[in-house]
Amino acid sequence: MTELWLPLLVAVGGSAGSVCRYAIGRLFAYRGKAAPYGTLTVNLSGAALLGLLYGMAWNVNQPAWLLLLGTGFLGGYTTFSTLMAQLAAMRETRESRLAAVYFLTTLGGGLLLTACGFFAGLWLN
Hints:
two-stranded antiparallel ribbon, mainly alpha
């Protein structure tokens, strides 16, 4: 595959990932406000899927599907900026304990699920 198509793969994957993130966020929306559960679900599932992809691609030299799905789709699907905005909003409303639990769950769960996904990918490979 020529190098000129690689950015297009990332763009197509990123567009699809963003739409999926929006749809999951809408599933968790209530009374016009987005609950952090949508962002948590997206970020944790994205971490697991990214680990799985990299585990499956461990001995492969940068396949195009890794750019499409990993960099593109999961890059558009997961969202660090929304996590930070939600944490800031919780801080402003004095929900510091909830913010701490949310942050630690996202960080710890993300690391754990990435590792689990990675080893599952190695096993599947």
